[in-house]
Write a structure and sequence with these properties.
15 helices; 81% helix; 0% strand; mainly alpha
Length: 391
């Protein structure tokens, strides 16, 4: 509803401004049309859309002016005009406004007073773009950091739910059919990452050039690193489920693990589930409030998981002696468990953030924005140093 009101107000103001500036002639409907296209959800998208829209109209007007000075309007000249306009649109990189270049060129070439029509289209476009950008500058668009963090936390909870079901099933005696069902669910979790990535991209755009955001760089780094880690965990979880399913490939009614091995494996998956959930809550806490509690819970879950992982080595070694043909599957399972524990490690994540910090420090920026970025980076660096010192 807020976006609807902003678009309506922007279009109305653009039409009123165009009528006041461009007196006479047909109604300046191109100005409110441009304002509707320019007033996007984020200020960054508004600036980008406004620049592309103005660029496309000016390119079309220039192409039409060149054609009108050489040839008139006929079927073959219209075809050449459209071809030249579309090629020009790609060259000036107006992206989704490439057809607008050809439309502007055709409208300008099809009137008798080419210069007047060209000026009118450029003026209306500039007025509409200016009104849209000014409206977003005065009324700051919303920031979508919280929905993005919630999407990451929901993804972590889905993975935790699957791991807990695997843990409970192994404790009571999971069969090959259960392992196949886990594999299908792991694939669904992996497919849902694209939706989380879309939420993260929207949050990233909403923080750029937004006066309501002070720690935009920190929030972007935290969210992006969190999604990258969970994406790797989702892939590893899928391959882990594949290994469990392959253990009973010949007989699906056979138990995946039994006895003490099943109990320890169930405990291991429960600790990994707690670690994944704590990691998701850590990402949300780092962009909203204090993250020390979530970080402590993550460290405890990882420590318990590593202790259980060491206990299961001897048990699986005994299993491999009984069935040497399955040694590769047991080894792949342990390798995937190690990968999950390593990806969720706090120190590994801190190292990634530190590398991103150094990379952003080396990128050139505007003096004013560069000062603000350096100040944010210094705060982020202090947080990383404290985190590493506690580790």
């Amino acid at each position: 509803m807020v976006q609807t009101v902003r678009c309506t107000v922007g279009a109305t103001l653009a039409y009123a401004a165009a009528e006041w500036i461009i007196q006479g002639g047909p109604p300046p409907l191109l100005a409110p049309l441009t304002a509707l296209l320019v007033v996007q959800v984020s200020l960054y998208a508004t600036l980008t859309m406004g620049f592309r829209r103005v660029n496309s109209v000016i390119a079309g007007v220039l192409v039409a002016s060149a054609f009108s000075a050489v040839v008139g309007l006929s079927w073959w000249s219209l075809g050449l005009l459209i071809l030249a306009s579309l090629v020009t649109g790609h060259l000036v990189r107006v992206h989704e406004f490439v057809p607008e270049v050809a439309i502007s060129a055709m409208l300008v070439l099809g009137v008798s007073h080419t210069a007047q029509m060209a000026w009118s289209r450029v003026a209306e476009t500039l007025i509409g773009a200016a009104c849209g950008i000014l409206l977003n500058a005065l009324i700051a668009p919303p920031v979508y950091v919280e929905p993005a963090g919630q999407a990451i936390a929901d993804l972590a909870r889905r993975m935790r739910s699957l791991l807990l079901r695997m843990s409970r099933a192994l404790e009571r005696g999971a069969t090959g059919e259960d392992a196949v069902a886990w594999l299908h669910e792991a694939r669904q979790v992996d497919n849902g990452i694209s939706d989380v990535d879309a939420q993260l991209n929207r949050a990233d755009e909403s923080m750029r050039f937004n006066p309501r955001v002070r720690e935009g760089l920190l929030a972007r780094l935290v969210l992006r690193s969190g999604l990258d880690t969970l994406e790797i965990c989702a892939v590893v979880l899928r391959t882990l489920s594949r290994s469990l399913a392959d253990l009973t490939r010949e007989r699906r009614s056979e138990l995946v693990y039994e006895g003490e091995v099943a109990g320890v494996m169930s405990e291991l998956f429960a600790h990994i589930a707690d670690a994944v959930d704590s990691f998701g809550r850590l990402i949300t806490a780092q962009v909203s409030s204090n993250a020390e509690m979530a970080e402590e819970q993550l460290g405890e879950a990882l420590a318990e998981g590593r202790r259980t992982r060491r206990r299961i080595d001897d048990l699986l070694w005994a299993e491999m002696k009984k069935e040497p043909a399955k040694w590769e599957l047991h080894g792949a399972l342990l390798a995937n468990v190690d990968r999950l524990l390593n990806e969720l490690d706090v120190e590994r994540r801190s190292q990634w953030l530190a590398e991103e910090l150094d990379r952003h420090r080396q990128e050139p920026s505007h003096p004013t924005t560069g000062y603000r970025m350096r100040r944010s980076l210094r705060r982020l660096h202090r947080k990383l140093q404290n985190l590493l010192s506690r580790g």
